[in-house]
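User: My collaborator sent over this chain with a note saying "see what the structure looks like." That's all I know about it. Can you take a look?
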Amino acid sequence: MAGITGAAPGPTTVTDETFEREVLASALPVLVEFGADWCGPCRMLAPVLAGIAEETAGALKIVALDVDTNPATQSAYAVLSVPTLMVFRGGEPVKAVVGARSKHRLLQEIAEVVPVTPGTAG
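Assistant: Without extra context I'll predict from the sequence alone. Here is the result:
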């Protein structure tokens, strides 16, 4: 998955087995990218997510889940399209958006539900 193989500050890979520990039990809010290796828009998101990870380090955790190899989590959250980006806070999903978007737009959408101050880059 592109988000997984992106730059070092990018998303951490999670699986059906690690989702509860890494996302639901996280003290920080978590942005989950539900994607797949074959998904072009997911690959387009890789640099966007890497930039957001760098800007929000310590305030927001970003992870990526490959829906092809982790069907239980995909099904549990009714993810029907990729990329789907879902924000979790306190173990609960608080926002979901479908499709690739610019860094500026995604930061604005995250800021609606998580106290993260978007940077000026976009």
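A starting point for your reply to your collaborator: The two ends are 23 Å apart (CA to CA).
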